């Protein structure tokens, strides 16, 4: 039976990938097809799904910092959006009930508010998947979206306590002891090395955090998230995250399949779910309004709002609890399952072209910006910059340090990870914060004296987007980039990049040449 899930997930995932759509759309379709074929899911699928979500939350924690959650743009926009959205859904439900739609007509004020609350959440699974694929987890809008998702998760914990009546155990206060235990956790991570023990250590931390919180009556997923946050500042946090990435992605396939198994709809349910799907436009506009009101730049507001404009799997939990309590009919569980699925598809399709949309409508979007941006959103211009390295991960930082050693401080580095930039600035490196795909950034930077730009970015599409912006802005210097695969190299050269370095093959060549110098 398990092979049937794998077979359909593979066929549907590959089919949508061939038409340049995210595979998760295919996984959702596979779940509904298997359900239609009356294939029964087993407990194994549920376990895989839960494990994937737990690992995903742990990995989110590895990339988060507590002070990000305390920023006004995170907590104020979360609370403001939830309240405004819930009131909006109550109004829409009342209006549709007056029109005569039976599903809305039978809703009371309380049940309409519950549905609005359920739909106010955004999908952690969908958003993290999109941000990871785009290499935008540590960008300004990526961190904003993640912060809001964590705040929503905290609200979810409070709701579950109130809805189920399950008050955490008195022993839950002992969870605060994890904070002084951070050095011990760090030493365990150091001892794990770099081989097979590293992902096993990650699984131990993630599942251990889940079980620890669950034992004292707190949502287990929150435990996995907190455990990741405790390790976020560790030097091996990034390496640990990469070691778990393939496991997490594989297990999350079970989650997308399980949504399709939730129920089979009728035509009326399908129509109601499409009405809710159309309301995603309003959800986007509300997020965009709150972000701009809190002085975020138009680009950050636009990309953050677009990423968050979907419905969450947690909404299904809220409605399931309401069905068990007899507040809502079971039909609403099916309606929301469809709406969640449709929202995943829409976000996946539109977000992939988010940067193109911004470039096209940037003048309109900028009209809604606050005249005084937040201090961290202001651009800085490095002095005497002749060479710029964009992306300061392992490869980019190595290139930056080598070039600095060769030609001095005329080399500048830029990265979208604010914490990485702060650490390097503390070490007196000539670096600054910036997102390579940010149109506003390139328009503000003076590149008159820059002769060479190196793009050490995570994907070929990112590098191509940057070089298009540079060329359209009139940059006539040389642009070099890195690639992982041979087909990427050809694609990037055709896009106008002057030199593409395949670091898998050419790093081996460099290693061989330097080694030969030892015997000559």
TrEMBL record:
Keyword Isomerase on entry: no
GO biological process: potassium ion transport; proton transmembrane transport
Main location class: membrane
Name the record gives this protein: Transporter (CPA2 family)
Domain Cation/H+ exchanger transmembrane: 6-347
Localization, UniProt: Membrane
Recorded family membership: Belongs to the monovalent cation:proton antiporter 2 (CPA2) transporter (TC 2.A.37) family.
Transmembrane segments: 7-36, 48-66, 78-99, 111-131, 197-216, 250-267, 273-291, 303-326, 332-351
Keywords, sorted A to Z: Antiport, Ion transport, Membrane, Transmembrane, Transmembrane helix, Transport
Membrane topology (UniProt): Multi-pass membrane protein
Gene Ontology MF annotations: antiporter activity
Source species: Marinomonas communis
Domain RCK N-terminal: 387-502
Lineage summary: Bacteria, Pseudomonadati, Pseudomonadota, Gammaproteobacteria, Oceanospirillales
GO CC annotations on file: membrane
């Amino acid at each position: 039976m398990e092979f049937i899930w794998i077979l359909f997930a593979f066929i549907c995932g590959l089919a949508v990938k061939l038409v340049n759509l995210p595979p998760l759309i295919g996984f959702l379709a596979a779940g509904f097809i298997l359900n239609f074929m009356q294939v029964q899911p087993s407990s194994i699928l549920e376990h895989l799904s839960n494990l994937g979500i737990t690992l995903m939350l742990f990995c989110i924690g590895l990339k988060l910092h507590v002070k990000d959650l305390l920023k006004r743009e995170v907590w104020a926009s979360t609370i403001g959006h939830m309240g405004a959205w819930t009131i909006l859904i109550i109004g829409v439900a009342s209006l549709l009930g007056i029109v005569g739609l039976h599903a809305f007509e039978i809703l009371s004020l309380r049940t309409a508010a519950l549905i609005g609350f359920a739909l106010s959440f955004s999908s952690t699974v969908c958003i993290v998947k999109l941000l990871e694929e785009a290499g935008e987890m540590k960008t300004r809008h990526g961190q904003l979206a993640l912060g809001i998702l964590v705040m929503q998760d905290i609200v979810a914990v409070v709701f579950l306590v109130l809805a189920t009546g399950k008050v955490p155990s008195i022993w839950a206060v002992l969870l605060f002891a994890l904070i002084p235990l951070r050095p011990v956790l760090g030493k365990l991570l150091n001892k794990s090395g770099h081989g097979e023990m590293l992902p096993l250590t990650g699984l131990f931390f993630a599942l251990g955090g889940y079980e620890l919180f669950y034992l004292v009556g707190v949502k287990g997923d929150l435990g996995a998230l907190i455990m990741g946050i405790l390790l976020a500042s560790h030097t091996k946090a990034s390496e640990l995250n990469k070691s778990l990435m393939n496991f997490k992605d594989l297990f999350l396939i079970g989650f997308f399949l399980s949504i399709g198994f939730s129920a089979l709809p009728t035509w009326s349910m399908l129509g109601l779910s499409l009405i809710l799907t159309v309301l995603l436009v309003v959800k986007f506009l509300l997020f965009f309004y709150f972000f701009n009101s809190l002085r975020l730049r138009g680009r950050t507001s636009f990309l953050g709002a677009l990423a968050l404009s979907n419905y969450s799997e947690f909404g299904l939990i809220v409605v399931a609890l309401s069905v068990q309590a007899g507040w809502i009919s079971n039909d609403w569980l099916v309606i929301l399952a469809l709406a969640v699925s449709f929202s995943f598809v829409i976000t996946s399709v539109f977000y992939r072209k988010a940067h193109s949309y911004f470039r096209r409508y940037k003048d309109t979007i900028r009209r809604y910006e606050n005249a005084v941006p937040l201090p961290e959103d202001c651009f800085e211009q490095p002095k005497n910059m002749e060479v710029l390295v964009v992306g300061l991960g392992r490869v980019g930082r190595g290139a930056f340090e080598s070039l600095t050693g060769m030609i001095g401080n005329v080399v500048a580095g830029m990265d979208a990870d604010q914490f990485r930039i702060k650490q390097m600035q503390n070490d007196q490196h000539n670096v600054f914060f910036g997102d390579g795909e940010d149109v506003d950034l390139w328009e503000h930077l003076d590149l008159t004296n820059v002769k060479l730009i190196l793009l050490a970015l995570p994907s070929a599409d990112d590098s191509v987007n940057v070089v298009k912006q540079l060329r359209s802005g009139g940059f006539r210097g040389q642009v070099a980039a890195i690639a992982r695969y041979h087909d990427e190299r050809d694609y990037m050269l055709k896009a106008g990049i002057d030199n593409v370095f395949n670091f898998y093959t050419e790093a081996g060549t460099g290693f061989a040449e330097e080694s030969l110098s030892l015997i000559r």
